[in-house]
Amino acid sequence: MSAVKRLFEKYSIDPKQVKRLEVGTESAIDKSKSIKSFIMQEFPQVEYSEMEGIDTINACYGATNALFNGLYWLNSEHTTTKKNDVYSVVVAVDIAQYDKGPARPTGGAGAVAMLLGRDAPLSFSDFRLKAFHMEHAYDFYKPKKTSYFPTVDGQYSNVCYLKALDICYERLRSRHEQPISVADLDYLCFHAPYNKLVQKSFARMVYSDFALAEESQLESLYAKYGIKDDETKSKINQYARSQPREETYNDNESSKFFIALTKKMYEQKVGASTYLPRELGNTYAASLYAGLTSLVGLKGQELQDKRINLFSYGSGLAAAMFEFQGRETTHKKHRYQLEDIKNILDLPNRLNQRQEITPEEYSKTMDHNMDVYLKHDFVSSTPTDYISSGAYYLDRVDDKYRRFYLRKE
User: Which residue of 34, 81, 233, 290 shows the fewest CB atoms closer than 10 Å?
Assistant: First the structure.
């Protein structure tokens, strides 16, 4: 609710213009009632209630499915209206919480509200340039209905992620009219459970460029990457062209080689998109879009005419890779230009407003959350000092398990 309210306020959006709203999450507290239905409190008037969309759930992938649903809706011949000032809103929101142990520090929380409409500053240059991979896997799941915490097979989940990345990238490459490589992309955003996996993923895509290249394409590929020495070429041949890809997912030597090889390019093409994920921790369905927000929030107008590759992954599993392009909008409304979105986001200043707490305080808060999880008939005792102005917070849960929220002034 906080993200949607701020989106409407900062960009002067009339609720009457929003005809679809969909939520991507895996953190719904109720097994029946959607998060979207709570957000409808922002649209109390009956004339605002004709709004398609609902929650979409599959681990960290739900928001991407919601995004595509919104884009398909905008471009559908069955959309109720074709006016240019009609919008779809997608909300990517999650809380990543882990039990005591090494995974706990990677947790986080976040919500990203995205406005979809025609003549957008980020758009598909070609709607065909997208690729998907779906598969059955038990790498990360939440079978315990009485607990926040997931069941995770960490090493297997990393393999699932990288395998899905390989498949999606190979499929996306095949949909371009001309062969492409990572060197041809301006920026990349990844689903970011933790930053080391993002580094591995970028290196893995470069690995795939060499693994998939025809023999006749190698010299031009070396030139694109600025590789001239025979020793490096020999290493690339050893790691990328001399063994099956499925045998390389746990090959640390190969991974370290390509991470080192691509370090400078990683900073140029990926570094900016890791700004919020590194500061906020894992935000599950919001993670990729926190990365995209980082990119816009740091680069602004520099993204005009630039190609942005995005990789989305959700355990279980579902994955997608697609491309956006930055552009100048034709209607010239200042709030919808890339540079002005950057200024409105004001990311460094917003992050500086956070209040630091100790690990002990954090653990105490987590213990309290578990104590009240699934309980009812109580008033929240959590201090609101750390809550930013304009954010919603849980005030109470009544004897019928109904949840009530207030907005901090």
Answer: 81
- Residue 320 · residue 312 · CB < 8 Å: yes
Asked if the peptide bond before residue 317 counts as cis, ω within 30 degrees of 0, the response is yes
Q: Count CB neighbours of 246 within 10 A.
A: 9
Instruction: Tell me the H-state helices in 17-153.
Output: 35-39, 62-74
Helix intervals (H) in 77-229: 154-174, 195-212, 218-224
CB 353 within 8 A of CB 386: no
Are 121 and 155 spatial neighbours (Cβ–Cβ below 8 Å)? no
Alpha-helical regions (H) of 121-182 = 154-174
- Cβ-contact 310, 323 below 8 angstroms: yes
Binding residues: 157, 196, 200
The residues carrying an active-site annotation are 26, 60, 191
Which candidate, 355, 361, 312, places its Cα nearest to that of 169? 312
| CA nearest to 213, candidates 187, 237, 229 | 237
CA distance 345 to 128: 30
Quick: pLDDT tens for 46-97.
Answer: 788 889 999 999 999 999 999 999 999 998 876 666 566 789 999 999 999 9
- pTM, two decimal places: 0.96
Residue 393's H or E segment, with its range, is strand 392-397
Q: Which residues are annotated as a binding site for CoA?
A: 157, 196, 200
- CATH 3.40.47.10 domain span(s) along the chain: 2-352
